[in-house]
Amino acid sequence: MSRLWEKGLPLDERVLRYTAGEDHVLDARLVDYDVQGSIAHAEMLNQQGLLSDDDCKAICTGLVELGQQHAAGDWQIELADEDVHTALETRLTKNIGDAGGRLHLGRSRNDQVLTALRLYLLDAVKAVKNSVHGLHESLAELEQRQGELTLPGYTHMQQAMPSTVAWWAGGFAEGFADALDGLDSSCRRMAKNPLGSAAGYGTPGLNLDRDATTRKLGFEVTQTPVTAVQLSRGKAEAGLLFELTLLMQDLGRLASDLLLFYTQEFGYIALADDVTTGSSIMPQKRNPDVLELVRGATATVQASLQECLLIVAKLPSGFQRDAQRIKAPLFRGIDLTIESVDIMAYLISRMEFQPENIRLDDGLYAAERAYALVASEGIPFRDAYRRVAAQYGGKQQPD
């Protein structure tokens, strides 16, 4: 099989395996996006008089068919293909003849992969947001069911002031609403069209219309100058992973609360049987494995961000093959976030607080009593604070 960069020289099988890495597996999710980018490129070449009408039609029809066949499982990217770009172009040329070989005019795998990745990322953001909306809905339904139930609010892991299920759930809900805003902001770098920048220095001698592919593909702007494209590798990816890290940190803190609430010592919540697992040795136990794994997933997503940042750190300008290794942590972070948010939304939809087990310490209302003294007697708050503190043994606790 001839790869796009093939010059007729031999390639050691070990080198192929090492340089292709996981791309032949990872790129399966990019097939539709590479098809979109390739069709837009072909139509632009046709408009610029660089591709005949017949060839353009054959290429576009052939690409659509290949995309449909891949979705149906009729073919898959193989190690010999190396990546999605070779897989599509090789099969296209086999199916339609010489016209398939004319598609690569004016582009490189360097701008191809970025185009497909950014189109994919824009859809991935939509998928994450859809999951977050589902989690937000589960929290809202919990507030409707049990929002008025009083909970102790904690500081330093000690009961501190009165709260409610609505306040507890609402705090997390605001965090997830903030995550939606962050996801929207992460799209700024994804919405720049890299197509036509080729290997990073444009296509001297060809009259390409990069703005035409920007419009066809729905990007907001054409990324210029062409030398900026390779310098931007990893920025959109890291920007998204950063927002996913913040989202997962809130999700992990939510999981930590629920793990504490589920202990026998607390007994604040009941989890549905279908979201807990059994013990292999202790017949009486039901384990909140889902919550523990969600909590652990926060580390995986943060590590994905760090891996992405470290791969591109201090690289010189221009294309560097190191950037290929961004795909694995990027896809891992996206997939794990969606799975974690979805499973948490389901768990909360099946969860109930147990009011009979919620014990409120009388000290929860100490601050409220101090405020009442200020209002009724007009004394300074610190005086009221000391008087109330004396009622609880006179021992002042840190705030």
TrEMBL record:
One of its GO terms (biological process) is L-arginine biosynthetic process via ornithine. This is Argininosuccinate lyase. Pathway: Amino-acid biosynthesis; L-arginine biosynthesis; L-arginine from L-ornithine and carbamoyl phosphate: step 3/3. One of its GO terms (cellular component) is cytosol. PROSITE patterns: FUMARATE_LYASES. It catalyses: 2-(N(omega)-L-arginino)succinate = fumarate + L-arginine. Residues 23-302 form the Fumarate lyase N-terminal domain. It comes from Woeseia oceani.
